[in-house]
Amino acid sequence: PATTRPSEQALVTSRPAQYLLLERFCHATSARMSRDNVHRLPDHHDGRCRGGALLAAWYGWRFLDAPAELVRPWGWSFLATGLLLAIPALHLTLTWPLPGGNNIIMGEPALYFGVLLSLAGLIILIGHDLRPLAWLSLPGGIMLVVIAGAILQHGLTRSPVMWAIAYGAIGIAGILVPVSFRVPSLRLIAAVLLVVGAAIFAIGAVGAYLEHPGPDNFGQWRPLPLRS
Length: 228
What we know:
The chain is an all-alpha fold. The protein is 75% helix and 0% strand. The protein is globular, with a radius of gyration of 23 Å.
């Protein structure tokens, strides 16, 4: 309008250019993250998840009803495994160094179960009852099953079906953990599911350790905030 002051008119005419620049930046960032997610990010799931799953499988199958004095040394194994899982997962959850949803499917479950394993280690060392804490594996197991569905839905990782099986198997085992205290026949089923999930994590971990150090993979990887 003719009554518009020059400063306001300049602001009005500059807005489309600002929006266009922002839109181009968002599209470029999204395309780069998607490209990195497909080509630069192999199946890198932390090998510590494998150790935690195997430890829980062995303990739940063999020592769930054992006397406190017999199982007390196992508390250190749970505590160490839980801390090694939770501390890096906390960093991953808070900083999001990986592209997009990979931070969610890798960081949050590892943090949740890392804390549970650490607390389980302390309870075993003290000699208290594990059953109240075991109920917290139920929502964690449900979370893993949901993440398995998300991996299939969005095609995350290079092998969505394989990793969905791993997350789903460990998730179902987590759901069975609190019930297995009352139904001993479920302990072997939960242990087998944990071993299946751990085996897939082991395959992914070996592949990642062999591939990631290479100069064409993560040898030159930089988190998104550090890229120019």
